[in-house]
Design brief:
The protein is of the alpha/beta class. It contains 15 helices and 22 strands. The chain has 4 domains: 123 residues, NAD(P)-binding Rossmann-like Domain (Rossmann fold), CATH 3.40.50; 74 residues, Regulator of K+ conductance, C-terminal domain (Alpha-Beta Plaits, 2-Layer Sandwich); 117 residues, NAD(P)-binding Rossmann-like Domain (Rossmann fold, 3-Layer(aba) Sandwich), CATH 3.40.50.720; 93 residues, Alpha-Beta Plaits (2-Layer Sandwich). The strands form 4 sheets. It has a 6-stranded parallel beta sheet, sandwiched between helices. A 6-stranded parallel beta sheet has the order 14-13-12-15-16-17, with helices on both faces. The protein has a 5-stranded antiparallel beta sheet with strand order 7-8-11-9-10.
Length: 456
């Protein structure tokens, strides 16, 4: 696939890194020569210095033969215009735009992005995606990853295995027999930084990260069993009142019983957040200052969310909050190399903002009847939801007859309900399958959900 990415910042770089790694032909366009120099030096991509919405610049980038345009500059208007130019002048099949301003995204203006007006096929809002990810984690305390699939019939839950976990050293194939009332399947394990699909006789060890696909209503029970059941936080401090922090605070205002305060360094942004929020106290100050954190009540907070746009601030403010007495700290960290530092610091969890953004793009890059994708550990593995067609490998087969390598089925949804993964379960046309695949198996997953049977 030939892809042009307008914008070489964090979001554009993350998308370019992932797509180029999968042998797509990628060209990045940005006004900054420094960003283009960085992206072309570190990645196997082509770079063009120029304005991403100018027709001559896009033509130089190869827009005439492009399969997809992804516009993720910091300007919503540039992104929208780039998609308009790509459609009107070059007839690009798929156009993606990053839109940050919530005014554009309100439901009453949905017609704006129709093909007759502003022809954008896919709208991504990284700030909203990150905010939703934070809220899902708040609703499932103890899990470091919470992602819904199949219209929320099942969820991906990432769980860190502690010393008191009752399933340590138990072969994975025996776990369902120990808890027959629980509909959950381990589809992946991260050990020493590497994700793999486990074999049935593989055990879990202390320090592992286990990835479960669980029936949504069984999520709380799963967290109790694996020993990470935690009470939902009621007193929360948010560091950062920008797009992400303000979005999370606004959503929390609708939850009964939660008290929330926000610390924002920039005075203008603090005033904007205070104007938008009705029941949330917004403090204008430096979160790196212990007195400001204490004024916000960090010492009594059950949870501190560090959601600024600066990785160093999020990490150090999280460390300070923990020292002051916060129950748990969660930090938003963009830089992959910095994420490795988290395990060495007193920060409980971190959020990788690029995971949600890249995943939203991959849903439309993956071929076949793939309905949803979520990427893990910078692309080491993917959790995929696909629809079974009558020509699919799975169609008409019993569960026990399906043999996979580098892949694991986590759930089969029949008529909207997760079916128990019994050996005699027959997979039918129209079923949805949620599965994990290692990087080496990505293309095989696409083949599984293709219409053609050539692969088989």
């Amino acid at each position: 696939m030939k892809v042009i990415i307008c914008g070489g910042g964090r979001v554009g770089y993350g998308i370019a890194s992932r797509l180029s790694r999968e042998q797509n032909t990628v060209t990045v366009v940005d006004l900054s020569a420094d960003l283009i120099r960085q992206v072309t030096t570190e990645l196997d991509v082509r770079g063009i210095v120029g304005h991403g919405a100018y027709p001559d610049v896009l033509k130089q980038a190869g827009i005439e033969s492009a399969d997809m345009l992804i516009a993720v500059t910091y300007s919503d208007e540039v992104n929208m215009m780039a998609c308009q130019v790509a459609h009107s002048l070059f007839n690009v099949p798929t156009k993606v735009a990053r839109v940050r301003a919530q005014s554009y995204l309100e439901s009453e203006w949905n017609d704006l992005f129709s093909r007759e007006h502003m022809p954008i096929d896919i709208i991504i809002s990284p700030e909203v995606e990150i905010g939703k990810s934070v809220l899902r984690r708040l609703n499932t305390p103890g899990a470091f990853e919470v992602v819904p699939f199949a219209d929320n019939a099942v969820k991906l839950l990432g769980v860190h295995i502690e010393e008191d976990c009752p399933i340590i050293a138990t072969p994975i194939r025996q776990i369902p027999d120990l808890f027959p009332e629980l509909q959950a399947t381990i589809v992946g394990v991260r050990r020493e930084g590497q994700i793999f699909v486990p074999m049935p006789d593989d055990p879990l060890y202390v320090g592992d990260d286990a990835f479960f696909i669980v029936r949504s209503e069984h999520g709380s029970r799963l967290m109790e069993i694996v020993g990470t059941g935690e009470d939902r936080a009621r007193h929360i401090v948010i560091i950062g009142g920008g797009n992400v922090g303000a979005y999370v605070a606004k959503e929390l205002e609708a939850v009964k019983g939660i008290r929330c305060r926000v610390i924002e360094y920039d005075k203008k942004r603090a005033e904007q957040a205070a104007e938008m929020l009705k029941r949330t106290v917004v403090l204008n100050g430096d979160a790196m200052n212990a007195e400001i954190q204490q004024e916000a009540g960090v010492q009594d907070a059950e949870l501190v969310l560090c959601l600024t746009n600066d990785d160093k601030t999020n990490i150090l403010a999280g460390v300070l909050a923990k020292k002051i007495g916060a129950g748990q700290t969660v930090s938003l960290v963009n830089e992959v190399s910095m994420q490795a530092l988290i395990t060495e610091l007193p920060i409980d969890k971190f959020i990788d903002p690029r995971a949600a953004t890249v995943s939203s793009i991959l849903r439309h890059v993956r071929r076949g009847r793939i309905l949803d994708v979520y990427t893990l550990s910078d692309g080491q593995a993917e959790v995929v939801e696909g629809e079974v067609l009558d020509t699919s490998l799975f169609a008409g087969k019993k569960y026990e007859e399906i043999k996979l390598e580098g892949m694991a089925i986590g759930a089969i949804i029949q008529d909207g309900v997760p079916a128990p993964l019994d050996n005699n379960l027959v997979v039918k046309k129209g079923d949805r399958v949620v599965m994990m695949a290692e990087r080496s198996a990505f293309k095989q997953v696409e083949q599984i959900f293709r219409v053609s049977t050539d692969f088989f």
